[in-house]
Specification:
Layout: E1 3-8, H1 16-23, E2 29-32, E3 41-45, E4 48-52, E5 64-67, E6 72-73, H2 75-87, E7 97-100, E8 104-105, H3 108-121, H4 133-141, H5 148-151, H6 154-175, H7 183-197, E9 201-202, H8 204-213, E10 218-221, H9 247-250, E11 261-267, E12 270-272, H10 285-293, E13 306-308, E14 310-311, H11 312-322, E15 326-330, E16 340-349, E17 352-354, H12 361-366, E18 368-375, H13 392-405, E19 409-413, E20 421-423
Parallel strand pairs: 1-10, 1-11, 2-5, 2-10, 5-7, 6-8, 7-9, 11-15, 14-16, 15-19
Antiparallel strand pairs: 3-4, 12-13, 16-17, 16-18, 19-20
The protein binds inosinic acid (IMP).
Amino acid sequence: MANIVIVGTQWGDEGKGKIVDLLADIADVVVRFQGGNNAGHTMVVNGDQFISHLVPSGILQKKICYIGNGVVVDPKVLIDEMEYLIRRGIDVTPQKLKISALAHIIMPYHGQIDIAREALKGKNKIGTTGRGIGPCYEDKISRQGFRFVELIDSSLFKERLAAIADEKNFYLTKYLASTPVDVQAITDVFGSYAERLAPHVANVSVELYQAISAGKQILFEGAQGTHLDIDHGTYPFVTSSNTVAGNACCGSGIGPKHITGVMGIVKAYTTRVGEGPFPSELFDDIGDRIQQKGAEFGATTGRKRRCGWLDTVVLNNAVRLNGLTSLAITKLDVLGGFDTLNICTGYLYKNTKITDFPPNLKTLSECKPIYETLPGWSEDISRIRCRDDLPRNTRKYLSRIEELTQTPIGIISVGPGRDETIVVQHPFSGA
Ligand code: IMP
């Protein structure tokens, strides 16, 4: 039996939604373990597009989906998303979607703080999604958070909110010049959220353990990407959770011995939204072409994504940090039509070549990419379903990625649709 973690290897938006949706076909259970509605997964099934921010993409495959304790949940967003899925005929009953009793809740003031803080920072802003993700994780760590345990116990909820309202109001009004918390209004509206969501609240750790003991296969779905990890990413231009594979355990409540493989999702080029250094970023018309051809707009905020060449310094960092056992290459079709393609294989820093991703952001921002140039292809690859049938230069590009990362490619995505995929080695097979 296999239990696989899927993570983004770059700065998020690698196309995890499609791959998770595809793999969920074989999995019995899909679990989200970190992040919140800062994530956006786009999936195309039979020509219909679905975007999910909180509900694991496995819901489309009628699998049991869990939102783990490591996720921060905006209850309104979750309820709206559930209603949207229900309207589109998808089963989102409490048997299909379960939320950890220990998952933290994004409160209205978290979004307020996120937005007001970014505005105050001006040009030094992080470029957050403004969804209150960071402030919610802050309250979790400072033990002022609300979990589903508190949400569904109305007296506990009221008591806690009253206890923290003074401090929040002081910060909101005196420092951020924002509006104060309205305890009664929050209590009322969150009472209705509690009622709607209570049937979905579960002891996720226990249920996952039971599923593993029963021989079920679990897919752990990461959000964002390795380089947005709070510890290992390009701090402070990162998200507020651990996005690396190790957090699949902490964020869902199972032990590491149960993880049998880690698949890293690699966009065939690199993109990033928000601020922060990005050595292989393109500022010319090639970057614009990739942005347009790849429709590189954030699924959550609609912002244009910054685009650049594939960077194997970034990839190798992800290989090590996540213990990747295989790669899934996405959006390979977008690279068609270029005479040549560059792959960044190292950085030049003060006349010295470095191949390890530097921990110091200032160093990273001074790094110049060292490129290897490969021939491009012009053929349409979207109808190809076997790696050997790909044009010679496409195969060369893929083999070079495998050589440079020492990691085999298991899946190649050649278009947005579920069927526009080449499965070389399914991560759930042979386990
Ligand atoms: P936050 O997660 O909203 O606090 O934003 C922190 C940083 O992470 C910003 O640069 C965001 O653009 C980035 N970010 C958060 N979620 C995603 C995602 O799902 N894809 C890509 N970038 C993200």
